[in-house]
UniProtKB/TrEMBL annotation:
InterPro entries found in the cross-reference section: TRAP_TAXI
Cited Gene3D superfamilies: Periplasmic binding protein-like II
Entry-linked Pfam families: NMT1_3
SUPFAM superfamilies: Periplasmic binding protein-like II
Domain of life, per lineage: Bacteria
Descriptive protein name: TAXI family TRAP transporter solute-binding subunit
Native source organism of the sequence: Alkalihalobacterium chitinilyticum
Length: 343
């Protein structure tokens, strides 16, 4: 991280001296520019680069990562340069992190839990270590929707129906399986369909499927599809009893109430949500993580823009945190009295 500015200035001086011995002004100028670039590059090495890995298919993560780099890290932390890197998936972001190709990543909290326990999408692998949690930032709400003509009013009513469970081998499908299994329903009890949210909308409108599981951040652009469908679908609640059973087994789930005025439903809808989670490579310096966490919550208003409309607050920063918190972030939360300091 140290520069060699003095040495390079001497090199530049020598170039100026040698320029008197050459007949080509163009070559002289090129050498001057190269030497200056080396000086600039050497000076920049005093800056620690922090790379944030982001799932390129997740538009909210991409925007949040850019805000984290440009509006939170870069203006508020000295000698640190934050930048973003697009990964092919959230799984790849986790591997980027633990393999040292990134320092921070945004993923869902359930995915982080599966990685740290070697479950589901990571099944068969040794549990992944080398990363910690920093903060949970907003809820990604699991919504069960059905055509009114299907007669589906409860989760149990999905038995015998044509149900879209998201794309195959995705985190949405895992959520669907967990909820269905807790209600005593397996894939043998209904006709499962694999499709993304755009196809789900088309199939519901055409009557090709009866119901679907969709995960979305409410109020964001990804929620637009559900608002467009809201006049033609029912929203299915999960009972308090089943929510408690699911949370007892899967600690990353949080209870979420969709207010009736959001989709103009007759009553509030009770369901579960996963949380968007900022994670960090365990080896990242404690002081940096402390300062970044402080900057995050002192400048959280940047996330509350016209598109994201997030309200990131300290009140919910540890809600649904399924993995150990990084010591640097923990120190900040102790100062804020969100975590009690151990004796």
């Amino acid at each position: 991280m140290k520069t060699c500015t003095i040495l390079l200035l001497l090199i530049l001086t020598n170039i100026f001296v040698l320029s008197g011995c050459t007949k080509s002004e163009k070559i002289i100028e090129e050498k001057k520019e190269t030497a200056i670039e080396k000086i600039d590059s050497a000076e920049e090495t005093n800056t620690t680069e922090i790379v944030i890995s982001l799932d390129e298919s997740h538009t909210n993560f991409l925007e949040m990562g850019k805000i984290l780099a440009d509006d939170i890290i870069n203006p508020n932390l000295e000698s640190v340069k934050g930048s973003t890197h697009s990964s092919t998936s959230s799984l790849t972001s986790i591997y980027d992190l633990v393999n040292g190709h990134a320092d921070l990543a945004l993923v869902r909290n359930d995915l982080a839990y599966y990685a740290s326990h070697g479950l589901y999408l990571f099944e068969g692998d040794v549990p992944i270590t080398g990363f910690h949690g920093v903060a949970t930032l907003y809820s990604e709400v699991i919504q069960i929707i059905a055509r009114p003509e299907s007669g589906i009013q409860t989760v149990e009513d999905l038995s015998g129906k044509r149900v879209a469970v998201g794309d195959k081998d995705t985190i949405v499908e895992v959520n669907a399986k967990q909820i269905l299994n807790k209600h005593g329903i397996t894939y043998e009890d209904f006709e499962e369909k694999y499709m993304d949210r755009t196809e789900i909308a088309q199939k519901l409108q055409s009557g090709t499927i009866d119901a679907a599981f969709i995960t979305a951040g409410l109020g964001m652009d990804e929620d637009k599809l559900l608002k467009e469908l809201s006049d033609d679908i029912n929203f299915i609640s999960i009972t308090d009893e089943k929510i408690q059973e699911l949370q007892a087994e899967y600690p990353y789930y949080v209870t979420y109430t969709i207010p009736k005025d959001l989709y103009e439903t007759t009553s509030d809808v009770t369901t579960l949500a996963a949380k968007a989670l900022l994670i960090v490579n365990s080896s990242v310096d404690d002081d940096f993580v402390f300062e970044m966490t402080r900057a995050l919550f002192e400048n959280h208003e940047h996330f509350d823009n016209d598109r994201l409309k997030l309200h990131v607050t300290l009140d919910e920063v540890l809600e649904g945190m399924p993995i150990d918190v990084h010591p640097g972030a923990e120190r900040y939360y102790i100062e804020q009295q969100l975590i009690k300091e151990e004796d």
